[in-house]
Amino acid sequence: MDLLTWASEAKARKRARGTLDSSGLPAAEPEQMFEALGAARDLHAALEDAFGELDLVVTDNRRRMLSAKRREGRLEVRAHHMFVTRGAPSEWLVGFVRGEAGARERVRAFVATHRGVIDHVREQSSLDTAGTHHELMEHLERARDLLMVGELEDVVIRWGRRGKGTKSIRLGSYDFEQQMVRVHPALDQAWVPGYFVGFVVYHELVHAVVGVEVVGGRREVHTKAFRDLERLHPRYEDALEWERENLGRVLRASR
Ligand SMILES: [Zn+2]
Q1: pLDDT value, residue 125
Q2: 173 and 181 in contact (C-beta within 8 Å)?
Q3: Is 76 exposed, middle or buried (0-12, 13-18, 19+ CB in 10 A)?
Q4: Which of 50, 115, 130, 147 is the Cys-Cys partner for 94 at CB 3.0 to 4.6 Å?
Q5: Cα–Cα dist 38/31, whole Å
Q6: In 10 A of CB 181, how many CB atoms?
Q7: What is the three-class DSSP state of 59?
């Protein structure tokens, strides 16, 4: 460590007034740990420079990479350890908390680059989720937020393979065994609205929540509980209407 780094760290340490919770930092050799702690303190100081006294929590959360919220009037920033250990410029995080234009995209790109350090139960590859027109990960995250069920963190998503169906196709499916949502690639079109793809993903995630019921000896998935939950999607009516009007076109695109 050179003198300049040491001086900036010492300064940072003096300035930070809020609490720094660094328990989410990954286990490492003492030297790396020391470095990571220093980086966390620098980030804390940079955030306090911008927003005044606040608390910084370094997390190991698999899903929420970065968030900021006021709690009893006090700002709490939660940041995945990758921002600290992989050296994200602190002004990006400041910009994100401020809601600056482009900050969200910058942070998203950083996360995508360093996705490997996220402690995934199963690696969710962006190769499986990025379409030409629709990014499934965004829809999965939105659907999780809508359903607010913690266990859904382990659900993964990917575009399905092109099937041979000619008269009907499944726009989406949920595999209980693999906890995997698959979305038909025919939906990856510029003319398919995002809310419709989002609704298909939401529908499949509702399956994950509701599970399978056995009614009168028959396995039922679209139960009343299912339908009630499905109806809570904010674009429910729009999605059904779009499907009625465009299913033919989707079918033709699937061939
Ligand atoms: Zn279904």
Answers
A1: 65
A2: yes
A3: middle
A4: 50
A5: 11
A6: 26
A7: strand
Query: pLDDT tens digits for 9-68?
Result: 665 555 668 888 888 887 777 788 888 899 999 999 999 999 999 999 998 877 778 888
Same domain, 130 and 229: yes
Sorting pLDDT into bands at 50, 70 and 90, what band is 255? confident
d(CA 48, CA 20): 11
Please tell me the distance between residue 176's alpha carbon and the centre of ligand 1 in angstroms: 12
Shared domain for 113 and 143, answered yes or no, is no
* Mutual angle of helices 90-98 and 103-113, in 10-degree steps: 130
* Contact yes or no for 128/140 (Cβ under 8 A): no
How far apart CA 43 and CA 8 sit, in angstroms, is 11
pTM check: above 0.85: no
| CA of 14 relative to ligand 1 center, distance in Å | 56
Report the separation in Å between the CA atom of 202 and the middle of ligand 1, taken as the mean of its atom positions: 10
Q: How far is the CA of 130 from the centre of ligand 1 (A)?
A: 23
Regarding whether 136 and 106 lie in a shared domain, the answer is no
> CB atoms < 10 A from the CB of 194, how many?
14
Q: How many helices (H) and strands (E) does the chain have?
A: 10, 9
Residue 200 contacts residue 171 (beta carbons within 8 Å): yes
- The domain of 164 spans 126-253
